[in-house]
Amino acid sequence: MTTVNPWLALPEGRPSPGLTKRLRAAHETLVTSGPGPARGDVRTVVWDSWRRCLGSGVDPDGTAPPVDLLDGDLLAYRAAHPLAPVMPVIRRLLVEDAEADQMIVAVTDATGRMLWVEGDHRLRSRAAGMNFVEGSRWAEEVAGTNAPGTALAVDHAVQIYGSEHFRRPVQPWSCSAAPVHDPVSGVLLGAIDVTGGDHVASPHVLTLVRATVAAVESELLLQRRAHAGQTFHPPPPVLRTVPQLDVLGRERARLTLPTGVQELSLRHSELLLLLAEAAAAGEGRSAEQLAAECHAGGTAAVTVRAELSRLRRLVGSSLVGSRPYRLLGPLDTDLDRVRRALSRGAVGAALERYAGGVLPSSRAPGVVAARERVAALLRHHVLRSRRPELLMKYSALPEARDDVAVWQACLELLPPSSPRRAEAAASLMRLRRGVRPR
Predict the structure, then answer these.
(1) Which residue has the higher pLDDT, 348 or 53?
(2) Domain covering 244-333, topology
(3) Domain range 19-228, CATH class
(4) pTM confidence score
(5) What are the domain boundaries of the chain?
(6) Sheet of 158-160: strands edge to edge?
(7) Angle at the Cα of 408 (from 431 to 351), degrees rounded to 5?
(8) For 258-269, what is the mean pLDDT?
(9) Which of 63, 50, 67 is nearest to 338 (CA)?
(10) For the chain, give me the number of helices (H) and strands (E)?
(11) Among 33, 104, 214, 332, which one is most buried in terms of CB atoms within 10 A?
């Protein structure tokens, strides 16, 4: 009698007829009636994981996992991570063929945070819709049953086939993952994961992942031995800090420079944002143009010149130039980060970054236009995503609370068992009756 490996999702290499239907029925019973004895049509490792997820309060229809690290913070964290020096091994064994094999390769830290997500660019664009992106956290207690999160939870290589995922939005995907340990201390360092279609849950993919982990741990040991006798330790890489301007959901902008953080006045916030928006189009602005963009009733250009002179003294002449007024170097705004996420299809990541409207108290025509542009862009992508968890998260924003189209889409797309349907139905009824919320 052949013993079936309990860590394999599809021992025969493909799903048997009716497997998805049986898994979804078992999952529905668990989330609606609570945990009971293990069912024969669900692997024990999966059933135990589902029970842990239920106990952790994971919503099977909830929002995408959070993005914990962004931009410079992410780069600095993963540059210092023990798995950074062995990324060439992972790329050579898995990533180089990932596009041809229609796979995504992800490397996490020990808490399930995604540090590198590489491979098929089309699949990565799709996966970004569920926040399967660098910086997001896919630990089991946050993201539900999934191969990297569950591999870390049980400290063993494992596969998760489609409907074995606890969260329904992830069920179109399959994945294979294995934990990585420090070869000397045995400390858990993270996990290596391969994600894609049903073929990723076949036995040979898990074998490939485990072989990659073995190669990685061997390389870590070789590197450790090579450095054992060295007394010189090279300094950590110096990360160039690009100035950052935060304007979303803030009454006044926050400017982060290498020298420190400054909170700008409303007028300086408006001027620097307008220059950043102009720079995004490769342009500068005259004093007359800025006067028109800053003041609805019209103001003399000399007033704007005086404000810009004060702004340049405050932030430095190396950041803002004149004749025409323009940015002299890069300035990254949270507005840019939202737009970049949307441009690559990462709607969930864009929602994480969107803290609210652009300088909500400003009435400057140029700022109002920027506010309306990004709000309309975000709304378009959320509606087009057709993802209930993203729609419900978006519906909590002030600009979406009275949006009939958003609540209608929520009601259409939420599964019948979701407790959020009642909220969507009540909001839709309120709006159709013309009743304003108190």
Answers:
(1) 53
(2) Arc Repressor Mutant, subunit A (1.10.10)
(3) alpha beta
(4) 0.56
(5) 19-228, 244-333, 386-438
(6) 114-119, 103-109, 188-196, 174-181, 158-160
(7) 100
(8) 89
(9) 67
(10) 17, 11
(11) 104
